Amino acid sequence: PANTTVAITLFSASSLLSGPHQRFLLRELLRDYNPMERPVANDSQTLTVLFSFTLMQIMDVDEKNQILTTNAWLQMQWYDHYLQWNQSEYPGVKNLRFTPDQVWTPDILLYNRYESLDHTHRYTQGPLQFIQDVF
Q1: Are 76 and 108 in contact (CB under 8 A)?
Q2: What is the pLDDT of residues 2-43, one digit of tens each?
Q3: Tally of CA atoms within 13 A in the half-sphere of 92 that contains its CB
Q4: Which CATH class is domain 2-129?
Q5: Which contiguous run of DSSP H or E holds residue 76?
Q6: What residues does each domain of the chain span?
Q7: For the CA atoms of the chain, what is the radius of gyration?
Q8: Within its chain, how far is the Cα of 10 from the centroid?
Q9: What are the tens digits of pLDDT across the range 62-99?
Q10: Distance in Å from the first CA to the final CA of the chain
């Protein structure tokens, strides 16, 4: 119990310090951002998207119908030229969260189904994380 209290207190203090900086940075980054525009400095540049698939759970195996039902995590990573900041100007801000409609997202969908795609979630919220070296 004592360790939990300390961890929560430290997390809360860190959140309080970065909160105003996160809100200001989010407004600044999205002010002139166009989610329909490919996020590169020059339109002739290519944009590398890293795609990974992690199997989390095998939920069901139907041998007769040859159907394998799974729960998986799909992760896409790319460098967005427009969503970068100087960490010294925004103390404590190491990542931000966006909704899929706020930022550019690649038109990539992985599927291998015997039925319609109605139950597939194309995108969910994810963090934008500050990374010093890109690829």
Answers
A1: yes
A2: 333 344 434 434 444 467 888 999 999 999 999 999 999 999
A3: 15
A4: mainly beta
A5: strand 67-77
A6: 2-129
A7: 19
A8: 25
A9: 999 888 888 888 888 888 999 888 888 888 888 888 88
A10: 41
* Cα–Cα distance for residue pair 43/51, rounded to 1 Å: 22
3-state secondary structure of 72: strand
Amino acid code (one letter) for 53:
F
- Residues 29 and 103 sit within 8 Å (Cβ to Cβ): no
Classify residue 74 by burial, with Cβ atoms within 10 Å: 0-12, 13-18, 19+: middle
Q: Strand ranges (DSSP E) for the chain? A: 50-62, 67-77, 95-98, 126-129
Residue 96: strand, helix, or coil? strand
Query: How many other CB atoms are found less than 10 A from the CB of residue 18?
Result: 17
AA letter at 23: R
